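Z., the sequence and structure:
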Amino acid sequence: MMQTGPWDNDTEMEEEINPEILRQQKVVSYIKKGIWLYFWLLILEGALRKWVFPSLATPLLIVRDPVAIAVLIMAFREGIFTSNAYTIIAIIVTFVSFLLTLFVGHADVTVAVYGARIMLVQFPLLFVIGTVFTYTDVIKMGRMLLIIAPFMTILMAMQFYSPQSAWVNRGVGGDIAGGGFSGAMGFYRPPGTFSFITGLASYYGFVAIYVVFFWLDKAQHVNKWLLIIATGCMLAAIPMSISRTLLFEVILAFLFGVLAASRQPTYLPRMAGTLIAGIILFVFLSNFGFFQTATEAFISRFESADRIEGGLKGTLGDRFLGGMVSAVTETSEQSLFIGKGLGMGTNAGAKLMTGTNRFLISEGEWGRIIGEMGLVLGLVTILLRFHLIASMTLNSIRALRVENFLPWMLIGFSLINILQGQWAQPASLGFAVLSGGLILAALKGPEYVDNESDLEDFDAEVTQ
């Protein structure tokens, strides 16, 4: 276990810093910087692949993995994080599946390594984040998400109203055909700084959680004007994204806020204020032509998709419950126990194996896992993720009793992203890992340092 304080209390009135503790504190500081680098690479990975280094688009797909590996090495070497039941099971299951892939499955080593890294590298990082990050670190990351929101929204607007041939809409690798996905009324779903719309939807879903939290937060951790601007940006992003997923994530964030407020009556006026502020901002934005046009396109997309999928019931059934059931019921005898091989269900794996970006196994996450690993190992992996998010949810409910509702709000984002999020997609995987780690860190509650400036001075002192 990592010691909780930097002072050596063995000698009375002695204020000399223990060298071993100081060294460990410095390592923790380096790990935190690595996590922040991971965060920025998650936000900017698509920009690097589209605009900055388009010729390196393929290797940049895993640009966060070396950072994650370095963080894991530092954490394991210093004993800051060793292992737990989740990581041990993940390693064993993935190792067995890796061997089956090479000897029975598709046998492509590169594709197998790409698939194995999800549970061997990215998944353990979730627990390292939860170990080294503090409650204040979680707040700081939320602030940064809000600061980024205006710039991301401006970029979205430029992409939404620009032709796909415009530089701002360049696709991965500098593809002049454009990086937007088909939307409605001749408009495309913009990806922002991400490679695809899935990353942008996850980003704004994450922003929505923090927006609701900061409106309810008694401690006033964020500037009110920043909060108002970020709220407006989030609302504007919904129609411009032409993404139903983003709409559902925003609704989910609001519902989790309502549930948190219902546990503490003192929060109800703040929740009502949040709703009123959202309505006022929506009405304000509705006066602008750009918002009206985007709203019309979004409604058109929603209506056409509902007709195809059979309404809201069909959409939720096919995308969520239907995907869960079909992942098991449609498993072929051939892939019942051994699967087709790690990485084969990812777009990158398909590209390496066939030269085209298409789903070789399943578009759904559970179908991909079972198709790659077989029914037995696949179900173990799924149950592992289910147990993790269930444990986080129960602990977050307990945290509500002591008025720590930040973990509960983060559950509003991670519930689907950890349970059934498409981890084959790097951005979705990154947001699931990051949000899961932040939940574990937020469960610790506010630190013993009451004043944030004091905390920052403390952090500066131990990193010198």
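Residues 19-52 form the longest helix (34 residues). The radius of gyration is 23 Å.

Let me know what you think.
H.
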